[in-house]
Write a structure and sequence with these properties.
The chain is an alpha+beta fold and about 525 residues long. The chain is built from 17 helices and eleven strands. The strands form four sheets. The protein has a five-stranded antiparallel β-sheet with strand order 2-8-9-7-6. The longest helix is centred in the middle third of the chain and has 26 residues. A hairpin with a 2-residue loop joins strand 6 and strand 7. The protein is globular and about 70 Å long. It binds adenosine monophosphate and magnesium ion (MG). Adenosine monophosphate (AMP) binds next to loops. Adenosine monophosphate binds next to loops.
């Protein structure tokens, strides 16, 4: 394996697409270009907090603990043949066209080729770019740690996602008004190195289309298809339609995974939608604890709850409609685009319920299942059942003794004893209906248990866990961060020594900032 200083980067994005001619770095509108060249900011005292051994190995980097690795992935040095750049993209934010956004604090280093695969490497928090608008281009430790842990947790859960190679502290202070209440404070700055085949978003296409820059729109589409969807063939209207359909499929697949594991993204703006169907931009995200389709962790979205858990499938569709509009000038076929959106809708519903039933160990679908699942959801909400614990323990359910499982369900509840007692009849009724459904299914309990365990994780990154790791790191210890990273690499396995993480959210975490609600400030 080569050392990072010997690896020669590739730059297909920069070489094959139009770049901004202005090389000075100041906030501006960038026209007729897909990116702007930028330099990363030099940090005063960078130190490596954590890195992914697995990913470093996959990237064939021999020396992830070296000073050169730290220098390159904190932005203090350049890899060979790296020409850093920030992408130009726009986006619909909270339902409204926001114009140019772009990589305001993400800087792409180029592509690293390992084992014939190309990986784009990007630093988040390494300084301002022409797209920074009035912001500083930096990121704070708490949000960077949350991004590192969560994107890695998602990867090990089998959810399509960008990954994180490293998390470095810069040694510099960053000013943030965390609660947006007029009390800014200094916090530790950090840089995460993210890794994905590409970081192109819906918004990259939207901005070119909105500006009627159809020549660059076509180039970007052709580039994306050539590198990431080569099986679709040569550029043509038909190929663009196939491309859009594939994006829709991958997006649906990603959201079904989110619903399966209880992940709420929190800011599903079109600039945060990957064209490869990857979960991207981990900001005010959260994990469902007490089951609630209405829940959103994002304080900015508290009023309308546009990005609530139960709305993520619909929002993805809304975002795909924006992408369809952006691609329209290349396709000029409304009916064909609408047909794809219709297929997204029906496929999503189908895959979603199929997944919901598989979580229960049921594989033969019935017409009444949708209503039955919805009834389970309203019961889970009423009984305030912890999503992870409830599903995980359901693998122990015995269809011959449904009543015995009552106590297991009760253990997953956040309700107080009298309120829970009042729901006993309803819970029992559902358990009995479950027993009947499983008997129809006629599967062996042990087999069912194994399959259910592969869909219902035992360990997820509960909101308070990330916050505890942040508090510990801020106090100078990374033991908990390392422990959680270890835990989350095997989310479906029983890990006896880690049993404490398979528990209800502690009472103190219910209202603590960072554990229940998060702002976009990061
Ligand atoms: P987000 O809500 O994090 O997806 O960000 C929306 C837009 O704001 C993107 O264009 C980001 O690059 C930009 N942005 C967010 N935070 C910063 C920051 N601290 N400095 C510069 N740009 C930022
Ligand atoms: Mg973003």
């Amino acid at each position: 394996m080569p050392k990072i200083e010997d690896i020669v980067f590739r730059n297909s994005f920069v070489e094959e697409l139009a770049g901004d001619e202005e090389l000075k770095n100041y906030p501006r509108q960038v026209y007729n270009a897909c990116y702007s060249r930028v330099d990363t900011r030099i940090s005063s005292h960078p130190s490596l907090l954590i890195y992914s051994k697995d990913l470093a190995k996959e990237l064939a980097i021999a020396n992830p603990e070296s000073k050169t690795f730290l220098d390159i992935f904190s932005g203090n040095a350049k890899a060979k043949n790296s020409f850093p750049y920030a992408m130009c993209y726009g986006g619909h934010q909270f339902g409204h066209w926001a114009g140019q956004l772009g990589d305001g604090r993400a800087i792409n280093l180029g592509e690293l080729i390992s084992n014939n695969k190309a990986y784009s490497l990007q630093l988040k928090g390494a300084g301002s770019t022409p797209y920074s608008r009035s912001a500083d281009g930096l990121a704070v430790l708490r949000s960077s740690l949350r991004e590192f842990l969560c994107s890695e947790a998602m990867h090990y859960l089998g959810v399509p996602t960008t990954r994180a190679l490293s998390l470095a502290i810069t040694g510099d202070q960053v000013l943030r008004d965390m609660l947006y209440d007029g009390n800014p404070a200094h916090e530790a700055g950090a840089v995460v190195c993210r890794v994905a085949p590409s970081f192109i978003r819906f918004g990259n296409f939207e901005i070119l289309s909105a500006r009627k820059d159809y020549s660059n729109l076509k180039s970007l589409c052709d580039y994306t298809i050539k590198h990431f969807f080569p099986e679709l063939g040569e550029a043509s209207k038909k190929t663009y339609l196939a491309f859009f359909e594939e994006v829709a499929k991958r997006t649906a697949d990603m959201i079904v995974h989110w619903q399966r594991v209880g992940f709420v993204h929190g800011v599903m703006n079109t600039d945060n939608m990957s064209i490869l169907g990857l979960s991207i931009d981990y900001g005010p995200y959260g994990w469902l604890e007490d089951f609630d389709l209405e829940w959103t962790p994002n304080t900015t979205d508290r009023e309308h709850k546009r990005y609530r858990f139960g709305n993520q499938g619909e929002i993805a569709l809304w975002n795909l409609i924006q992408l369809a509009n952006a691609l329209y000038p290349l396709i000029e076929d409304v009916a064909a685009l609408e047909a794809i959106l219709d297929r997204y809708r029906s496929n999503y519903v189908q895959d979603y319920y199929k997944m919901q039933l598989a979580k229960l160990g049921i594989y033969n679908l019935k017409a009444s299942d949708q209503a039955w699942i919805e009834a389970l959801f309203s019961l889970m909400k009423k009984a305030e059942l912890d999503m992870t614990i409830f599903y995980r323990n359901l693998a122990n359910f015995d269809e011959n003794t449904p009543k015995e499982h009552l106590v297991e369900v009760q253990k997953a509840s956040y309700l107080n004893a009298p309120d829970l007692k009042a729901l006993e009849g309803e819970i029992l009724e559902w358990l009995e209906s479950y027993a009947t459904r499983l008997k129809e299914e006629n599967t062996k309990k042990e087999e069912r248990r194994k399959k259910m365990h592969l869909l219902n994780p035992k360990y997820v990154l509960r909101n308070y866990m990330a916050q505890m790791a942040i508090d510990e790191v801020e106090k100078g210890s990374k033991d908990l961060l390392l422990e959680l990273y270890q835990l989350l690499q095997h989310p479906y396995d029983e890990q006896e020594e880690m049993e404490k993480w398979f528990a209800l959210r502690p009472e103190w975490a219910k209202t603590k900032i960072g554990c229940s609600q998060l702002s976009c400030s990061s």
